[in-house]
Amino acid sequence: STVVLVFQAPISKLLHEGDSSQEFNFNVKCGDRIKVGEALGRWHSS
Amino acid sequence: TSFIKNFPKPQPPSSVNGANGNSKGDSSYLLPGATVATILMLGALHARRMYDDKKIEKRQEKGIEVEFQPDVKASFMSFLPLRSISRCWGQLTSMEIPAWLRPHVYKAWARAFHSNLEEAALPLDKYTSLREFFVRALKEGSRPIDTDPQCLVSPVDGKILRFGELKGAGAMIEQVKGFSYPVFSLLGASSLLPTTAHGNVQEETSESIKPTEKSKKSWWRVSLASPKVWDPTSSCPKKGLFYCVIYLKPGDYNRIHSPADWNILVRRHFSGHLYPVNERATRTIRNLYIENERVVLEGVWQEGFMALAAVGATNIGSIELFIEPELQTNKPIKKSLNSEPPEERVYDCEGVGKVLKKGDELGAFNMG
Q1: Which residue among B203, B225, B292, B331 has its CA within the 20 to 30 Å range from the CA of B284?
Q2: Nearest CA among B66, B71, B5, B262 for reference residue A31
Q3: What ipTM score was computed for the predicted complex, to two decimals?
Q4: Positions in chain B whose pLDDT score sits under 70
């Protein structure tokens, strides 16, 4: 069986706060084993 | 060697009927000969397949991507009654196993498919059938959920096959290098998926939807009514569309969890084929995920749209939803597959749908 996840996530610079940025990044590589609850990806704001 | 040792020696002709005696003797060799030939042939085919798979693994380790290669054997599978085979397999594995035999059967299964039995929530003899064992729950704390509010967690145990970003209208998901399929074919033509190229997605979701569309797409109201999680006036981060494909082996934990705090608003059930979905199948069977039986859940999370498609396979034909226990999949159908639109249900209880927290169980893949 297979699960396909499709989702929206932040990708680029904020419009109002100059140099701040948010971006979603996958934490995994193709071929990696992953378990329920482990992070697939994160985004950060600064 | 034992076969050769036990091979009966031909008797010399001793009478006029000797010729008949010889032909009788020859025919007695046919059965063991055919059996040995079949075993040798199956062994050779298995060895070749293992060699091919090993070769592909080595190429992947070197960073060389496998490409799509249509296969005659894969085409032949469309003529097999895979759905019936799947249901028979389900019935077979639902049979109650004697209590004394259960630990042996489940340990054998675990050895064959590399399952971790120490994580099982119950003692092995409590699972009455292989089917029940297959969808076993895990001990409390076996799968800690990442609590970072800015992360998306894996909904299943499995192997990452593909991931990436979807760009522009008519976005395609790559099945394997050299073959892709449209995301709308996977989720359904009536999907609420935002379609513009990234950069405009949020503008479309919050502003450009016409009033008539708003009444239909009530789930957008949820995202707009949740300033705590998505406030377009404060930061206006642009949104992109991403996808991730995760493959579950038969020995994996087979329950599905919520990847984030999520309001599920629509469920779609597509009846379809039940081709195998192993890695070999992904590179030989065209449109594998959009031909197979699947359940699609759509809704909103703090960053906008989210959909999860649970795709069945021959051995794991039915998908059970804990949030909708009455849903039945892999049923016998008379109409031709893929000709009917998906059966859809809107979970629109007061506009919020089914509310799930990150890590909550939402369904399971069942045998057959």
Answers
A1: B331
A2: B66
A3: 0.87
A4: 1-28, 31, 169, 195-237, 334-339, 349
